[in-house]
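Q: I have 585 residues here and want to know how they pack in 3D. Can you give me a structure?
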Amino acid sequence: MNERWNLDPLYHGFDDPAFSQDLQALKDACGQFDTLTKSLEELEPVVALRRCVDALEHISNLGNALAEYASLRQSTDTADSDAASAMGQVMAVFSQSAGADARFQDYAAKLPNLEALLEQDEVLSQYRFYFRMVKEGSRYLLGGLGEDIMARMSLSGSSAWSDLQNYLTSTVEVDYKGEKTNLSAIRNLAYDADPEVRKEAYEAELASYQKIKDPVAFALNSIKLETINSAQLRGYDSPLDKALKSARMKKETLDAMFSAIDEYLPKFWAYLKAKAKALGYEGGLPWYEMFAPMGGGGKTYTTEDARTYLVNLFGTFDPELQEMVACAFDNAWIDFFPRAGKAGGAFCAGVEKLGESRILTNFDGSFSDIVTLAHELGHAFHNHQLRDQRILNRDYSMPVAETASTFNECVVMNAAISAATDKNEKLALIESQLQDATQIICDIYSRYRFESAVFANRENEFLPAERLCQLMLDAQKKSYGDGLAEETLHPYMWVCKGHYYGSVSFYNFPYAFGGLFARGLYAQYEKEGEAFLPKYKKLLHETPVRTVEEAALVADIDLTDKEFWRQGLQILSDEIDQFISLLEE
């Protein structure tokens, strides 16, 4: 089986004539769109709207292929200067269309009979939700050259600072047992069966951040101040207000979710203390033991094992999902293993030109890595469900972005736990699931609190590395309570988490949302069986053309009702009780 993904169906390299041709075509398309948007008033409204939509679809098709290729190349080798240069060129061209796009959106938003105009054209009628978002978002656009200036300035501002963080964390050398390794590899040792390895890896990881903490702190400060200024200039109440509107999500939904989580946090602390006791610790669990394997969970899997397991399992759930998973393994969609220069963590990127996805993981052979693969393949399945949506209708919001991925996790974990007959095996599986659940509840809450604190302070002061570490520790103490040993918390989590450095703020709460939302959906699947699958696929298909709350209504769920979130949390609470019971037997 392949170890690295295959990008040749996109381009054969940056010297591929097709790449140069598409880049030039993108420049031409952006220029033509710019000219078009300066004469919209001279055209009939339906004609103007249709020409702009056609232009944007063409720009998206070209730009996505170019940007996806450069981004994927760079993610597996952050020192690839050709990839960085190509991405810079693509983004520079894209930025030139920002002003034109703003003119078009302003024009469309001001049309008094916009909805009636859309019904006069078959293509435009498929973009009802798109134009609804255009109309609602128009109030936050900057007039004149504002959008063009903001887009271009971000290339040497937030985008450049983000690249710096990614470069530093992927290339920093970690000293471990007399040898040099990388951050991804050392963080993977948190899952090692040897407690001494886990502790020493944690200590080596923390020590490595000393080398890069100051430049990364400058990156975070610069990005967050730019975000604050941008939100103010555009008229948002706050960066969180901007994030929620971008997520197409109500504040009432977020409040209902976190309010329910607050009620259940002590239950997660009880789980952590029970695990600590089982591992021989008094009080809270040390940070470096959060991913310590328990029970019979010491088996190591190959990528072939992962393929066999997931293809067979998803075959019992849905043939369409099974076929896509097999295709992902067999056609080199996946870049599996950690190596120097490769980005840490895992992600799935849709490659719209191919109607496929590409998945990056740092596979180390644990069952958790199989769950990670299932998670990312869930994103790929979500992309798969959108293939018949027009290209401007494929951008679903962050909260629902984690729905299919976390649903896949539920399929894997529930099947594995149900099939387990040995007590130690069952304990290992339940504990593995609780590890992940604790991450999306406690850790995500700490990240949300940390980012909120950074925004609250950054407007008036620069936050040096030491101050950022203290804000992170404060957030962790509130979110983990007495479940973790206070003296072993992780003050540098702000350095290694790329989500703080992306173009989207508060890329944290969607994971809690996705985890609890997917569990609610899975509970419905358990009740309805195969009859649920069409509803589930329809929900995924509709996510780009509905708000978060409207998408949930496809499954008859009211997201502003705190009781819904309690149901998902209660499922996890019951699993914690089962875990503690197994430990006490």
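Q: Anything worth noting?
A: The mean pLDDT is 93. Strands lie at 174-176, 179-181, 334-335, 347-351, 356-360.
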